[in-house]
Design goal:
Helix content is 36%, strand content 17%. With 246 residues, it is an alpha/beta fold.
């Protein structure tokens, strides 16, 4: 089992603080994922310079809607920053009219990047809350056919749903997403924004999220899968002190 830790690049100081925590978890995290968020000044791929390649694989996210494949800018970025892993996602259109975006399909981006850089590890995302299981699994299959080498999921909150997807994704390198929710307002956000249907026993507190994470980790170990932590505004020491990764 391999484990990825996501760091949101709000600013350099915040990034360094979270990366220092990741480094303190010696040997526990093999990957560092960095999403690309338009309202922040640091682009995901620029964080390559902040990561120790001897400790962690660096996985920057690229949003398909931010790139015109004909311009080739994504290829230039990959070459300039000597990237060996990328995660390609569709991305949400920006709010307002101040940002340019393109109608680029993530399937086309996966295909183009893999053809241009066959030795790069190209990951794609999947969202267990976006649509029904059958539709999402068909989309996963299309991404695999386009050239995706593996998948990182949006966070799960129901172990039964994890089991269903892992059964459907046998043979694919899969990272199970975990993002602890510890407030009612965060729970409401995930329900409205990400269409998450929480199980009846869900509680927005550390104990529930830690217990669930350890269940998912055990399942990942048993099935030969991986874990993807997306900690958002939580006490990292409090959460990870009870997470069993060994």
């Amino acid at each position: 089992m391999e484990v990825s830790f996501e760091i949101v690049p709000r600013n350099r100081q915040a990034f360094d603080q979270q990366y220092q925590f990741a480094q303190s978890m010696v040997g526990r995290f093999q990957f560092i994922n960095v999403p690309d968020i338009q309202r922040f000044n640091i682009r995901s791929w620029e964080c390559n310079a902040f990561i120790d390649p001897e400790q962690h694989h660096f996985v920057p996210h690229f949003r398909a809607i931010d790139f015109d494949l004909k311009e080739g800018r994504i290829f230039q970025i990959i070459e300039q920053h000597e990237l060996s892993h990328v995660l390609l996602v569709t991305g949400d259109p920006p709010d307002g009219l101040n940002r340019v975006f393109f109608n680029t399909s993530v399937l086309d981006m996966i295909r183009a990047v893999k053809q241009r850089f066959p030795n790069i590890k190209v990951y794609a995302g999947f969202d267990p809350h976006r649509s029904g299981v059958q539709d999402e699994c068909l989309y996963i299959q299309r991404k695999t056919e386009a050239g995706a080498d593996g998948f990182f999921s949006q966070p799960f909150y129901d172990i039964r749903m994890v089991e269903i997807y892992l059964e459907q994704m046998q043979g694919l390198e899969t990272f199970i997403g975990l993002s602890p929710i510890t407030t009612e307002s965060s729970k409401h956000y995930w329900e409205v924004k990400n269409k998450v249907q929480f199980p009846a026993n869900f509680r927005p507190d550390y104990d529930w999220n830690i217990t669930f994470a350890n269940q998912a980790i055990q399942l990942a170990k048993e099935t030969g899968n991986n874990i993807y932590f997306m900690p958002i505004r939580i006490d990292l020491e409090k959460y990870f002190s009870k997470i069993v990764l060994d």
